[in-house]
Fold Endonuclease.
Amino acid sequence: MLRVASYNIRKSVGTDWRRRPLETLAVLNEIDADVVALQEVDRRFGTRASSLPRQAIREATRYVPVPLDARPGSLGWHGNAILVREGIEVVETTCLALPALEPRGAAIVDLAFGEARLRVVGMHLGLLGLWRRRQAAAVLAHLERLEPSMPTVLMGDLNEWNPEGRCFKLFARTHRVVMPGRSFPSRMPLGALDRFILSRDVTLVDAAVHVSNRSRGASDHLPVYADIAFAGSEAAGRHVRPLVSHA
């Protein structure tokens, strides 16, 4: 079993409006995922440098940032970053620009776990429904063109409050949309904005919102995680967790 996680870190600014990247990294250590998709990693103004220093990631976690086509000092692509546990092989990366009134993008990373392969998409969709639908369609169209096809996990902040939102329906035509639970705002969660979207060849074992004293204060979003299994994942060695029944 492999654990993936998604976390909108709001530029490492907590609910007390203080920027504390070490708190963000401490939350990631609590979740103990193998692959993490982060949103709002880079600062909004100036050089838009990463709010998570690379040196701090190296010293405080076992994660390695996936190299993306980002500006100098940045960690992500339009704020999206992917972290992988040390030892996981990055095979290929793609930075996809999405249609939007404001800059939006998706980071697509192909990973190898021994002989197994997994495609991960980190994304942060727009605030307006029309553009969310266009962005979802753009991501799906791009995935359809990629060769070879492989088990795929899409994750991120979809900014959709409506449980019957049209972007969910677009994804659900070919994928399974997973709602781990309410994740925003972190102090009193009302909206299930953070989701996982799984291709049909990925099995969901468990999914949840990570709630702790730290996660309630480290961002205005709570992180979410999913435990998954897919063909060949038994070859991932130490990265794969024992399969646990939650019946």
